């Protein structure tokens, strides 16, 4: 089954990491033969090429410039005519809305975020995907009205366990990042610099713990857009306050997040809006870190109570949860060990990718067995 994955590819975040996982772990589900069509040259295209899978660039698309969408759609149509994939899988509403008209059925949509009212959502609905895959039940619940004519299926993301270098030195990395006391508790947030990811909420909670000298905070993630650069400046200003200055470290873009997780003591990403899924949560659990986040969205499905603490999006509640783990290395170890078992039994590529393949195969089989294509709405 030849699957063409269609996406924008101009940034790098959770969707891009999932696409790279599909390429890198393709031997786990050999019934799927992946290829990729991206609008933009960037880090994802380069990574996919290094992995060794076909990558086609359709050309940069700007919604404000309709002719760019027409050109990219024509490029996609030529690609489909050459290679005849069994299914075109559009990742997110945007590429389906702008490019989906170029792809004949069967069309599938992978939703990586909740469906929201927008003109692209309305246009994507008109493309009539036969299958809508969702990374969580939370996202699936938002898809059922908009894509009522399609099969809706929850397909949690495949997240490979973190791989550490053979001679990884935890203590050396901690020292290199400013940890003077080996007993300090390192709180890590590794996330895109987007406001809803909860950096401000974390700093607000930590401002209540300034009298506790046992912790230090690492913020990993680089700004990719002007709005993120402005947000980073706001965070740096907040972190310069007395009690936080010198204890909150902005690490920028990192390619060694698995090592950072291995060197940290707990992972805290207190989202202020619902997280659709949370790849970082799975990676943190796989690394044996307890997870502290807010009880919103996909986090309620991904992080069980045996693996972390889920709290309201409130600074006082978050500060209390952090204190409870700073106080108890035994509790951190218990949650971390349970989380590692959960992540490695639930989200590994070997567990998740065959399920994805089965869903796509059912769509292709339905298409072959039905002259009409898709059921009427």
Q: Looking at this structure, what is the CATH superfamily of the largest domain?
A: Glycogen Phosphorylase B
With strands numbered from the N-terminus, the spatial order across the biggest sheet is: 3-2-1-4-5-6-7
Structural class computed from helices and strand pairing: alpha/beta
CATH topology of the largest domain: Rossmann fold
The end-to-end span amounts to: 27 Å
Strands, count: 13
Count of DSSP H/I helices: 15
Radius of gyration: 22 Å
Description:
It is built from 15 helices and 13 strands. By secondary structure, it is α/β, with parallel strands linked by helices. The protein folds into two domains: 2-158 and 349-369, Glycogen Phosphorylase B (Rossmann fold), CATH 3.40.50.2000; 170-346, 3-Layer(aba) Sandwich (Rossmann fold), CATH 3.40.50. A seven-stranded parallel β-sheet has the order 3-2-1-4-5-6-7, with helices on both faces. The chain starts with a strand and ends in an 8-residue tail after the last helix.
């Amino acid at each position: 089954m030849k699957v063409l994955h269609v996406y924008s590819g101009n940034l790098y975040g959770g969707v891009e990491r999932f696409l790279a996982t599909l390429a890198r772990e393709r031997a786990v589900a050999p019934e799927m033969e992946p290829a990729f069509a991206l609008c933009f040259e960037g880090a994802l295209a380069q990574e996919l090429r290094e992995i060794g899978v076909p990558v086609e660039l359709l050309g940069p698309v700007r919604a404000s410039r309709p002719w760019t969408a027409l050109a990219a759609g024509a490029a996609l149509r030529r690609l489909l005519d050459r290679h005849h994939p069994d299914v075109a899988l559009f990742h997110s509403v945007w590429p389906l809305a702008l490019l989906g008209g170029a792809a004949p059925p069967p069309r599938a949509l992978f939703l990586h975020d909740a469906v929201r009212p927008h003109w692209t959502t309305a246009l994507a609905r008109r493309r009539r995907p036969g299958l809508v895959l969702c990374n969580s039940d939370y996202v699936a619940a938002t898809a059922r009205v908009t894509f009522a004519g399609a099969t809706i299926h929850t397909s949690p993301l495949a997240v490979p366990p973190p791989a550490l270098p053979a001679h990884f030195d935890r203590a050396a990395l901690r020292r290199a990042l400013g940890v003077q006391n080996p007993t300090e508790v390192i709180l890590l947030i590794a996330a895109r610099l987007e406001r809803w990811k909860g950096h401000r909420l974390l700093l607000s909670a930590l401002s209540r713990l300034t009298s506790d000298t046992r912790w230090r905070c690492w913020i990993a993630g680089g700004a990719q857009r002007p709005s993120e650069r402005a947000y980073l400046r706001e965070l740096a200003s907040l972190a310069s306050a007395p009690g936080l200055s010198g204890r909150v470290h902005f690490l920028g873009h990192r390619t060694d997040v698995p090592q950072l997780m291995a060197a940290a003591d707990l992972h805290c990403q207190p989202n202020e809006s619902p997280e659709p899924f949370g790849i970082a949560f799975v990676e943190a659990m796989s690394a044996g870190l307890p997870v502290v986040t807010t009880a919103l969205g996909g986090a309620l499905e991904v992080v069980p109570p045996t693996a972390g603490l889920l709290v309201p999006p409130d600074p006082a509640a978050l500060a209390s949860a952090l204190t409870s783990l700073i106080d108890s290395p035994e509790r951190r170890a218990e949650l971390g060990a349970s989380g590692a078992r959960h992540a490695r039994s639930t989200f590994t590529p070997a567990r998740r990718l065959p399920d994805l393949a089965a869903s796509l195969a059912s769509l292709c089989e339905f298409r072959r067995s039905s002259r009409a294509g898709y059921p009427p709405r």
